């Protein structure tokens, strides 16, 4: 790539910033007896010479020119590019040592998370475009988990997999083993575009407007093949909503591509940007419609403008949402237009949307788009899969289905392509693994982040507490409506507590003896998609052992005071308001 290609995106002012900054780096290196990295391009002397990180170096230089200090993560990216540390990863493994200092951050670019002090080990996050992997890949991941990790995997809330308890000497073996399976997890953590999500049942969903698999795959490889799209101001999420009966939560993403049908019968995508529920924002409507072929180029343009304009001096203000608040939607979109060789169509609001998703379609036995062919949604205990179970499900998919494992953002998976005649055998094989083929409303709707089992940021043991909550509710309450409960350990909200019917946010609680114990703030009334809304706090600092009874009380009040058996929990909270719910509980 020529320097002209790289710098065509910069203003003259940015070019001057970059030239001076890169010249300073070479001067410093010369003083240390090192050769220069950057040489002027004869055609366009700006000092970058096609450097792959020029986009980010210019943004960093502009930040400092404005008198703002770069955060330590930005300094780390500038001092030693995180994608260039393979030798260090190998050397640390050879000496059986874990990374120190800012290298802990750099390792995340390779999907490696050093999880001390909770676990003196790595967690490795994968990348699964559209959340789909082959049975061969599933079996291979199980083998890697047995050989180098804890013998299990977790399905995440981005339809992805994580393996944990990887030793200090085994990180390169895991990464190479994944690539042998065709799994490239570069950029799975830190300031990068995360796993690209789509409809889990894509290609077999009976109500989807479009198959999202190829778009997710194209977006996935576009990111992997464009180094300049790594090292953003902060993490970035992209989702494709094809309108399936089973789908994700696209409007919680930085870019939300939602399929709609125009009057002429063609399928386009409505574009929303800036979603991040942990910061109280859903993706805002751009007013744009794009064709499927225009989605990836548009995402690329949005990423480049975000890289130039995102905050690099305050991590708490670095997400795309804050760029939109600072510049305004129209000003941001105007910059995006400058990167496009097409103009998005305007959305006149006359497009046909897909029917809403079925909140229980991700669990149990259901028919696919092909008559007589079924899929089984296998509920998992908050994403947990032993390597034996993962290997067994891969065998079920090969012997009875389409040889694919389809992960969902609800921390479970689907096995599809099962003919009617094979359903009984497939179900029996799944149950023989110690798994279920059905779930109660509360079990199907409850998700939980890793918690302090493996995350140093978490304030509570979320998966354990979620399990106790589900068991309590199944024993003491009969629900006749779907219900979502999102249990997250910290304000980063990996389990997105504010979009659940009930959200639990981990926090410390001080007892009468001045001892700090695990507890939760309780939120109610959240939703997404056609029922989007942010949950409001009902209770603060409820001790973990008291949470099951507290949630039971709330649900009993709902059942006793709803308008009709058809009124959802979210609608009930919306009608009563949080204060109204509190009054009902006080009067009970």
For the record, the count of structural domains works out to 5
Provide the CATH topology of the largest domain: Sulfite Reductase Hemoprotein, domain 1
Put simply, the count of helices is: 18
The coarse overall form would be: globular
* Terminal residue distance: 70 Å
- Unreliable runs: 1-8, 27-35, 37-49
Q: What share of the residues lie within helices?
A: 25-40%
Backbone CA Rg? 24 Å
Q: Tell me the major beta sheet.
A: 6 strands, mixed
Family: Belongs to the nitrite and sulfite reductase 4Fe-4S domain family.
Domain Nitrite/sulphite reductase 4Fe-4S: 190-340, 448-584
Organism: Sediminicurvatus halobius
Domain Nitrite/Sulfite reductase ferredoxin-like: 119-179, 372-432
Architecture overview:
Strand 19 (502-510) and strand 20 (516-524) form a beta hairpin. Helix 7 (135-148) runs antiparallel to helix 8 and helix 13 runs antiparallel to helix 14. The protein has five domains: 3-68, no CATH class; 83-180, Sulfite Reductase Hemoprotein, domain 2 (Alpha-Beta Complex), CATH 3.90.480; 213-242 and 249-353, Sulfite Reductase Hemoprotein, domain 1 (2-Layer Sandwich); 364-437, Alpha-Beta Plaits, CATH 3.30.70; 444-587, Sulfite Reductase Hemoprotein, domain 1 (2-Layer Sandwich), CATH 3.30.413.10. It has 588 residues and is α+β, with helices and mostly antiparallel strands. Strands 6, 7, 8, 9, 10 and 11 form a six-stranded mixed β-sheet that branches. A five-stranded antiparallel β-sheet has the order 1-2-5-4-14. The chain has 18 helices and 21 strands. The chain is globular.
